[in-house]
Amino acid sequence: MTGLAFVFPGQGSQAVGMGRAVYLASRRAREIFDEADRILGYRLSAICFEGPDERLNDTAVAQPAVLTTSVALLEALAEASAVDHRMSDGSEPRGVAALPNGVAPAFVAGHSLGEYTALVAAGVLTFSEALRLVAERGRLAAVGGARGAMAAVLGMSAADVERVIDATVARGSAVVANDNGPAQVTIAGDDVSLSRVSLALAAAGAKKVVPLRISAPFHFPAMGRIGPDLSAFMRGLTWRDPVVPIVANVSALPHLPGSIPETLVRHLTQRVEWLRSVRYMVGLGASTFVELGAGQVVNGLVKRIADVRLINISDPLTISGALTALRRGGPR
């Protein structure tokens, strides 16, 4: 088994300029961005490349933008790693199925929203299906989802943060949304509760409490109100078996093919078990983590969990460097 794990970032990783370089350099990346523009009915590519920040950070735009950029980078990696670069009719394998031995991962996982990118990478959904699903998820969250905010807490464990929350606000008004590492946690809640918890955490010894660039709180009980509508939308999609294990956020274990839609509904309200997910993959031999997306958010978390090799892919130069490193040395 290869020691590679591919990981994908979620909302909050977006930045103006994301995807521009790979769009210019890769035919398959251009196809992904152009497809996104057609499906969404607006120029997502222009917002990714040129902004403004306020538009890109809106949940309804940020979620498709993060998905599209990561999938474009994955397709550009497949294009660059292919022995035969001839044009095709578009029916060639996509996602990790298009990657040669030595580059294809043993696991894929996405952080929060990045789980939807992992579904595309593993062939469970086509890009167009996942894009429509993510756009609907963002729309439902904007019009009928929970109201509130999220913040990153540095310097405290999830258990310690939970104790402060329980002592500060009413049950369910603020929660640990992401267990990102031994001393990094994301919290979600309504605005008033999150403000009170943030002050209490600072007083209890947190190094930092940093508001996140999101417009709705996910992995938060009140977001469950959009679950029935999201479930109804997913019944119109075609779900395929994954070609590689997808480590699920809510369980830190591989998704069971028949229950993926139901798990994605629970994903709205349950915490992201990222710490456990990384430890699971490392425990089964993952020694190199490749993050595909804008920036290095997810591998920054992985670094604090495990002593593994980290590779980031965010543009054509890093694609070239990643292929050289993987072909030369293989997974660590």
In short:
The protein is of the alpha/beta class and 332 residues long. The chain contains 14 helices and eight strands. The relative contact order is 0.17.
Structure description:
This protein is α/β, with parallel strands linked by helices and 332 residues long. The protein folds into two domains: 4-144 and 223-329, Malonyl-Coenzyme A Acyl Carrier Protein, domain 2 (3-Layer(aba) Sandwich); 149-215, Malonyl-CoA ACP transacylase, ACP-binding (Alpha-Beta Plaits), CATH 3.30.70.250. It is built from 14 helices and eight strands. The protein has helices spanning 20-25, 27-40, 44-50, 53-56, 59-81, 114-121, 127-144, 158-168, 191-204, 227-234, 260-267, 274-283, 297-303, 316-329, and strands at residues 4-8, 107-110, 149-154, 174-181, 184-189, 208-211, 288-292, 309-313. The strands form two sheets. The protein has a four-stranded parallel sheet with strand order 2-1-7-8, sandwiched between helices. The longest helix has 23 residues, at 59-81. The radius of gyration is 19 Å and the shape is globular. Mean pLDDT is 94; it is low at 84-89.
How big a fraction of the residues is strand? Answer: 5-15%
Report helical residue fraction.
Answer: 40-55%
Total count of domains: 2
Going across the major beta sheet, what is the strand order?
Answer: 2-1-7-8
Average pLDDT confidence is 94
- What is the CA-based Rg, rounded? 19 Å
- CATH homologous superfamily placement of the largest domain: Malonyl-Coenzyme A Acyl Carrier Protein, domain 2
Give the biggest sheet: 4 strands, parallel
**Helix and strand composition category:** alpha/beta
The SSE order reads EHHHHHEHHEHEEHEHHHEHEH
Low-confidence stretches: 84-89
What global shape is seen?
A: globular
Count the strands? Answer: 8
Number of helices: 14
